[in-house]
Design a protein that fits this description.
Length: 437
């Protein structure tokens, strides 16, 4: 896969017209509307082909790592504040972190990010709390493959979503949680997050579930409230009937929720986390997904692996095969004299990531400081495969990053991104198809 090039699949027309033929219908249907973001091209009109063997191994890696994370998270959740603080988890979420519902899976919807290297697939991080790229992988990719007459590697994967939602709600019901009123929520103004959340609502198959923007949710005493069906959007100053939320799917990271405050300074997010801890509202992804989100957990897993502790022989083999050495201090990597990467433990989309050479000098930085005040983890630098893609601005020489979704413990849809050495929020989405072998 090194030095690869996208395939136009023989689809006629120049790039602009070909791209519009692919994404125009998706945009008009209202399911995938963010093929441009922030005035820039996001979704590409090319097609990358991966082999069935590569797809199978990526999913196998995701499932093996999912089992390792599940086992580790279960122990972490039974820990206490000193451990959670060391892992960088916010104090406001400690009560929620104690809640365990299914120790066989680390989260309901997660995405492992992989680099394809000469040594095989290497996991870079686990997006286990609020992963995105879902509509691209589970919906848009199939439509693009159909337009090209190619096989979709993600065919049938969207069916896993409904089963996962049903099982999660049933787990909450068995645990004594209310499950009557189910709300899906994201920032209403955020096109990608709101669109992703509405797509998951539709795919969930949960009867009576509704979408409510985060800004329309309210906290009152011991309940989280949302406008009753048909009540949202009343005139300014109008009294909107509200009703309690039993289950909340939220595309809003828990570490951000922990910091959320009302305009008057009231810590609304911390209050919601208290309601979660008290069982007044159940959340999807579950709290275990947040515990798995911190990259400090990668350092913990690697430390246990290096010492030969805790994991089975099979699990140690998977860790050595698919994970990178990860540490909370750069000294180990510096002693080896190899290029390495520093990443904030709860960072996202490449923000505040820095690449160093073997002496510790900066080779490249994201240039963003959003998470610069967080503790860092350090890993050997893994060079992503080079790829040339066609864009509206002409040919682009970038680096290829893969994501593989883990749905309720099962390897699922894959998604490809093309960016720089550090994959940022504005990296391109590149559809993918299966090679015929």
């Amino acid at each position: 896969m090194q030095g690869d090039k996208q395939d136009d699949g023989g689809m006629p027309g120049d790039y602009i017209s070909r791209r519009e033929a692919l994404y125009g219908p998706l945009r008009r249907e209202g399911v995938f509307t963010w093929d441009h973001m922030y005035g820039e091209e996001y979704a590409l009109a090319g097609l990358y082909k991966l082999s069935p063997g590569e797809l199978a191994e990526m999913r196998e890696a995701a499932e093996a790592l999912g089992r390792i994370y599940a086992r580790t998270v279960s122990v972490v959740q039974q820990g206490g504040p000193p451990l959670w603080t060391e892992l960088g988890l916010p104090e406001a979420a400690f009560g929620a972190l104690r809640l365990r519902f299914d120790e066989s899976v680390p989260t309901m919807i997660g995405r492992f990010d992989f680099a394809h290297t000469a040594e095989g697939w290497k996991m870079l991080e686990f997006n286990s709390d609020t992963p995105t790229g879902i509509v691209e992988a589970f919906h848009a990719n199939g439509r693009i493959c159909a337009a090209y007459g190619e096989a979709d590697p993600n065919a049938g994967c969207s069916e896993q979503l409904a089963g996962a939602f049903r099982r999660m709600v049933e787990l909450y019901r068995e645990a004594g949680c209310g499950t009557v009123r189910i709300v899906f929520s994201a920032l209403g103004w955020h096109e990608e997050d709101a669109g992703t959340t509405r797509y998951l609502l539709e795919r969930s198959g949960l009867e009576g579930a509704v979408f409510v923007p985060l800004e329309d949710l309210r906290v009152q005493d011991d309940r989280l409230l949302a406008p009753e069906a048909g009540a949202a959007g009343g005139g300014e100053g109008a009294e909107v009937p509200m009703a309690p939320v039993d289950v909340l799917y939220r595309l809003h990271a828990l570490e951000k929720l922990a910091e959320d405050r009302d305009d008057d300074g009231y810590p609304t997010g911390a209050h919601v986390l208290e309601l979660i801890a008290a069982g007044r509202v159940a959340i999807i992804n579950p709290p275990s997904g947040f515990a798995a989100q911190t990259k400090a957990l990668q350092a913990l897993i690697w430390s246990l692996h290096e010492s030969g502790q805790f994991y089975s022989e099979e699990e140690h083999a998977a860790i050595g095969r698919y994970m990178l050495p990860t540490y909370m201090e750069p000294s180990t990597a510096l002693e080896a004299g190899i290029p390495h990467v520093g990443k904030p433990i709860l960072g996202r989309e490449g923000s505040s990531v820095t690449i160093y050479d073997g002496s510790g000098a900066v080779l490249e930085s994201s240039g963003e400081l959003e998470y610069a005040d967080q503790p860092m983890v350090y890993q050997p630098f893994v060079e992503l495969p080079r790829i040339r893609v066609e864009t509206l601005n002409g040919p682009f020489d970038g680096r290829l990053l893969w994501g593989c979704f883990l749905i309720d413990g099962q390897g699922s849809a894959v998604v490809a991104r093309v960016g720089g050495a550090i994959t940022s929020n504005m990296s391109y989405y590149l559809p993918c198809a299966l090679k015929t072998e």
